């Protein structure tokens, strides 16, 4: 049978973000996949070179709407290492609490999306309801549901009061019960077993070869986890284990994520119960000395790497961001081969793609109600016309 | 291969490619030249077990383009292989045949910096929009948006 090119996206049926797949199919079977992410480059890396560290943090947080804390922590801990500043233990613990709550909300969100894609909308409703408990905790601690803005170079922005700690601890038992239910459900729930098992298989060798990261890699038995390999924040203190599975398919990725929910909950509980006393930040110099660092961070979707080069001023010479989704695309393109077209949504979703991270894109819906794409050039011009004093 | 990877084993096995330096615990940096990068990665894979590429970082330092290949292996030691490319002719051999994951990073760097990875079969746009003008590489330090150039999108549809 001749090969047919099926173009899917950029308005993707499964994802809420723009990506285009050119699927080359032979009948129902996928032969090859071509990928195009080029829908709107926001120029975050270029913009980061123009701002001082204090103003870079909120910018980097907006690289992603789900793992916002990941980006700002990766950057802050990189700059702190270049400056040779050690942040106080209390700040480390607070950063860890936010990081793990973020992982929980991200994994619960993913579980809901995956359930929705296989038509299991009950589970979607359940997980998103339970996710609200996590979101409420984050909002109570930071004032925000998405961009927590907790990081500063040298520590965290705001402290946790005993009342906040108790409120967070009070939400955990119920959440734990729900998570245990999901762990249990994965074992017997017919819909999940049928739609997830054997779909999008990736062997351990392939996962290593294609540079897969995060839960996708751990589901194939690759035990890479930056939190263990290169411990940062409070991960060396807290009791937890790297979760791996040997299924290597979408089912394995689901199991890894629900188990990681349990581990994350344990880390959050440990940090809340053992929150050290003391200051939450230390004063830092304005300028960072010349240096470079590869700052690694285990984001919910996998290893996030910020390569930072400083030049002795209060601005970075270069920040190069490699997001986990970019690392995982290669494996998606590979494990879609020989699968059914109907399984594309769930296989793609199984890496939990985050495209705003990856291409650092934006969509503009301006006052004229016209959607469009704004080039970097126009962005600059518009900014300058509104702020003539800064040009 | 069974010996733990340390600065000494790397120096011993890879001395023909450059001098290794310990940046900090579990980080090793080695400066090499573009002609040797392919062989250096082959050696590090075969002899030292560096089987994974974390990323390829790029820096435009004003005089040259620096590329850093961050490799990691089962010992969780990161080796960063650095090369310099001249600005007027930034060409380097691809390593996507050794490390398939390098393909997408090379495509991204090609798009944003205009560095050519010779031998990469798929040097197409990935990050920038498809109607982005050719020969415009936004992450280069000397790049400035030119008001006379159309950078894509829909003409005359903005407020």
Overview of the molecule:
- Chain A is of the alpha+beta class and 391 residues long.
- Chain A has two domains: 4-39 and 362-390, no CATH class; 44-354, Cytochrome-c3 Hydrogenase, chain B, CATH 1.10.645.
- Chain A is built from 15 helices and ten strands.
- In chain A, the strands form four sheets. A three-stranded antiparallel beta sheet of chain A has the order 1-2-3, with no helix packed on it. Chain A has a three-stranded antiparallel beta sheet with strand order 6-7-8. In chain A, strands 4-5 form a two-stranded antiparallel sheet.
- In chain A, strand 7 (302-310) and strand 8 (316-322) form a beta hairpin.
- The longest helix of chain A is centred in the N-terminal third of the chain and has 29 residues, at 89-117.
- The radius of gyration of chain A is 21 Å and the shape is globular.
- With 159 residues, chain B is an alpha/beta fold.
- Chain B has a domain at 7-90: NADH:ubiquinone oxidoreductase Nqo5 subunit (Beta Polymerase, domain 2).
- Chain B is built from three helices and seven strands; from the N terminus they run αββαββββαβ.
- A five-stranded mixed beta sheet of chain B has the order 1-2-5-4-3, covered by helices on one side. A two-stranded parallel ribbon of chain B has the order 6-7.
- In chain B, a hairpin with a 2-residue loop joins strand 1 (20-24) and strand 2.
- Chain B is elongated and about 65 Å long.
- The N and C termini of chain B lie far apart (62 Å).
- Chains A and B meet through strand 7, strand 8, helix 12 and helix 15 of A and strand 3, strand 4 and helix 3 of B.
């Amino acid at each position: 049978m001749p090969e047919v090119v099926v173009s899917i996206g950029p308005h993707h049926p499964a994802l809420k973000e723009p990506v285009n797949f050119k699927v080359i199919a032979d009948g129902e079977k996928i032969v090859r996949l071509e990928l195009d992410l080029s829908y709107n480059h926001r120029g975050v890396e270029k913009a980061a070179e123009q701002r001082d560290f204090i103003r870079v943090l909120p910018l980097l947080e907006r690289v992603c709407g789900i793992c916002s804390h990941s980006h700002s922590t990766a950057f802050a801990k990189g700059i702190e290492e270049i400056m040779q500043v050690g942040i106080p233990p209390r700040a480390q613990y607070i950063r860890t609490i936010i990081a793990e709550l973020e992982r929980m909300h991200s994994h619960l969100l993913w579980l809901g999306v995956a359930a929705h894609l296989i038509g299991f909308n009950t589970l979607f409703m359940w997980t998103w309801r339970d996710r609200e408990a996590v979101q409420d905790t984050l909002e109570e601690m930071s004032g925000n549901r998405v961009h927590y803005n907790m990081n500063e170079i040298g520590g965290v922005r705001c402290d946790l009061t005993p009342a906040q700690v108790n409120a967070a601890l009070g939400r955990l038992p119920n959440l734990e019960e729900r998570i245990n239910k999901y762990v249990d459900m994965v074992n017997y729930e017919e819909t999940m077993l049928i739609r997830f098992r054997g779909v999008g298989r990736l062997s351990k060798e392939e996962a290593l070869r294609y540079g897969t990261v995060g839960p996708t890699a751990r589901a194939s038995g690759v035990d890479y986890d930056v939190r263990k390999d290169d411990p940062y924040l409070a991960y060396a203190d807290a009791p937890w284990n790297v979760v791996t599975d040997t299924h290597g398919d979408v089912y394995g990725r689901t199991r890894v994520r629900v188990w990681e929910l349990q581990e994350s909950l344990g880390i959050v509980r440990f940090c809340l119960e053992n929150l050290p006393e003391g200051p939450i930040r230390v004063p830092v110099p304005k300028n960072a000395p010349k240096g470079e660092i590869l700052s690694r961070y285990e984001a919910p979707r996998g290893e996030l790497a910020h390569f930072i080069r400083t030049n002795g001023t209060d601005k970075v010479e270069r920040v190069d961001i490699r997001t986990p989704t970019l690392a995982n695309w290669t494996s998606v393109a590979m494990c879609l081969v020989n699968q059914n077209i109907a399984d594309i949504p769930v296989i793609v979703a199984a890496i939990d793609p985050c495209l705003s991270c990856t291409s650092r894109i934006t969509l503009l819906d301006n006052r004229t109600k016209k959607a469009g794409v704004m080039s970097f050039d126009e962005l600059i011009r518009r900014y300058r016309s509104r702020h003539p004093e800064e040009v | 291969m069974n010996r733990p990877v340390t600065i000494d084993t790397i120096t011993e096995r890879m001395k023909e490619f450059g001098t290794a330096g310990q940046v900090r615990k579990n980080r090793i940096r080695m400066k090499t030249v573009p002609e040797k990068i392919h062989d250096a990665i082959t050696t590090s894979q075969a002899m030292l077990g560096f089987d994974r590429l974390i990323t390829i970082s790029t820096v435009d330092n004003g005089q040259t383009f620096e590329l850093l290949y961050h490799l990691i292996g089962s010992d969780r030691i990161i080796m960063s292989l650095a090369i310099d490319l001249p600005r007027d002719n930034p060409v380097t051999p691809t390593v996507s045949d050794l490390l398939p994951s390098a393909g997408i990073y090379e495509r991204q760097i090609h798009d944003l910096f205009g560095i050519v990875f010779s031998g990469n079969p798929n040097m197409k746009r990935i990050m920038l929009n498809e109607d982005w003008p050719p020969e415009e590489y936004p992450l280069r330090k000397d790049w400035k948006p030119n008001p006379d150039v159309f950078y894509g999108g829909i003409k005359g549809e903005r407020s």
